Amino acid sequence: MADLTHWTLNRHIAASLLAITAAMAAAPAAQAADETCFKTPTPVMSLGFGSRYEADSKSRSDIDEESDAAVTKALKPIDQFIQNLAKVVSKAQTEKDIATRRAYHRCVVDSVYAWAKADALNDMRTFNAKLSIPARIGGLAILFAESRDQVPGLHDRERIVEKWLQKRALEIVYFFENEATKGAARNNLRAWASMAVGEVGVLNRDRGLVEWSILSNNTMITNAATDGSLPLEMNRQRYALHYQLHAMTPLVTSVARLCEAGYGKGGADLDKLRTMAHFSVKAVKDPKIVQKINGKSQTVKPGLKNNLTSLAWLEPYVALTNDLDMEKEFASLRPLSNSKLGGNQTNLYDDQRISCTITVQN
Fold it and tell me: Residue span of the signal peptide, if any (predicted)?
């Protein structure tokens, strides 16, 4: 009996030790899972705010500080969401372990799915909210695109995200075709809309959305001055160079990504785009170049190093044009990153050379 009792006790002790060992092993695994993602924020359903600028500022260059703060506050939850997604995508790009890399991609798909399922961003209540949302839809679309089809078993969720983005893209097109002012329909805001609509078009193989994006990009390039400056942005007085860069960011990215997806450049003048890129970089190095155009000192601090986020488009630009002289300008400043373009652009375009040969047939 004593031996039986002793054996039973040892068995219970062994079972307990096994349970403790299993729990200890599970703890790091759970912690690792947590470290591959973040808590998905509550989906933002509606936005409604005024302009960042004073009501009587015809050039939209005089900031209303109170209104500016209100706009930034309203957009912060969305922008923070995009920044968090970009960090995860950037981690996935360099992760060697397949399981961990898939966990990162699953995080992105699941997080965007939560917003798609809720039909987030479906109620843009003001004109300025409608102007602001394309850059966010574009960022979400690119980040989702980088994680789509990377994890088995997420097909149904991915289709829901694609259709949600398609709804938002169609709303953007309607707004810019029917409600946007003449200036907004042709300036940097149109470039952000074009990037968003084109990216969603690629995701859904929606030729209509892709063609709208291609036409928008071509119009932006055609309307640039021969020196590479964008006249509508040069009118923004002290903020002219800021908005030149703000337009180049989605424009170059959109052209590059549409070519990479096999839709071609749609007749876009890449030589002129090169002129625009060189003008922009020269002006960042010496903002007086823009001051000579509009007579106003610029808010942009001189030097490439001081404007890396605003110059992240140089990575897709070099991948698209193979402009090695331009690459020398910023090679020592890598990595370049911008959350609304998909995070770490240096990793994303890592020595790529993008062809504009048309391969898509639909």
Answer: 1-32
